[in-house]
Amino acid sequence: MRIRTTAPLALAAATALACSLLATAPASAASHQGGLHLGKIQYDSPGKDTRTNTSLNAEYVDIHNNGKSKLQLKGYKLKDNTGYTYTFGTLGLAAGKTVRVHTGKGKNTSTHVYWNRGSYVWNNTGDKARLYKPTGTLRDSCSWTKGNGVKVCH
Question: What is the pTM (predicted TM-score) of this model?
């Protein structure tokens, strides 16, 4: 008889715990959803690392504006663990839009900008991308260890 009476109590306790965890999950997830944040990072370009411009541009970081208004990115910096730094020029990023920062060379547009490097930035075995405000304050960061070449940060 004890088993029958404790089993419903255990089930009720487990259900209450699960519901409380589910109720708090969106609040913790929402902390990074507002405003500017790192999105998908292709840290290992597909195929062999040939250092061709095509291969270099297949290595990239997406930066997403999930806020409610357009943001001016001038002066924002994207950095890796080594200290390689991409500094944004004048670029307005509309609410709900993404800009992709490619490692190689190309012509900047409103959705694609280019670091203009002749070598790779992001380490395939592990690295950390950091996005800094023009004031030097860290806005977002995302790290990875060796994997499939792609990290989805948020």
Answer: 0.79
Q: How buried is residue 121: exposed, middle or buried, by Cβ count under 10 Å (0-12/13-18/19+)?
A: buried
| Cα angle: 87, vertex 93, 94; to 5 degrees | 170
- Cα dihedral 124, 29, 98, 139 sign: negative
How many percent of the chain have pLDDT more than 90? 77
Q: Is the pLDDT of residue 22 over 80?
A: no
Whole-number Cα distances in Å, 79 to 8, 26, 83:
53, 29, 6
106/125 Cα distance (integer angstroms): 26
Structure tokens at 5: 């009476």
Instruction: Return the structure tokens found at 50.
Output: 């040939």
* Main-chain phi, psi angles of 35, to 5 degrees: 85, -155
